[in-house]
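Before relying on records like the one below, remember that each one covers exactly one chain. Contacts with other chains, cofactors or solvent are not represented anywhere in the record.
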Amino acid sequence: MRNVPGQLFSIPNLLSMARIAIIPLFIWTYLETGPGGSYLLSSALLIASGLTDMLDGLIARRFNQITDLGKILDPVADKLTQLAILVCLTLRHPHFIFLFLIFALKELLMLTGGLLLLRRHIHPGSAKWFGKIATCFFYISMILVVLFPRLPPQVVDGIVLINLLLSVFALLMYIPVFFMLKKGEAGR
């Protein structure tokens, strides 16, 4: 990575760092909110995180501020945020453990595949539409679960199930992308 100090202060990278800084604030506000308390601040932090996620990508592409550092910071901020949300929600809603386990497995497989490609000097590429849909639904649904802690259990179960299905769907859709990239390397 060249010129890391210069890359550090690009607006998209500052937004990614802000997302990382929001994580401990979200954890603290969510876990400190007792039963019957207001989850508004926790939800507002998740909304801010989601908006900065959208903005950093838009600004980076629109104003040609895509950096090597940003290619690392953005997905790290995404995964750390999703992990923090799932850990917090699992503490309050034990059946979220299934979503947490699927998320962990998916991300472990994606990381392994990405590292295998990078070892062969193949760029893994950016997120695809199916990954973006899964992430978007994840953020929206998790904000709802945090904002409305007394949602009926059937609604929460439905949210968990849809997130599980979208995560598995995204993973299954990335598998052929991985093999296409790997096969493309063989044709060089």
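The first helix runs from residue 4 to 8.
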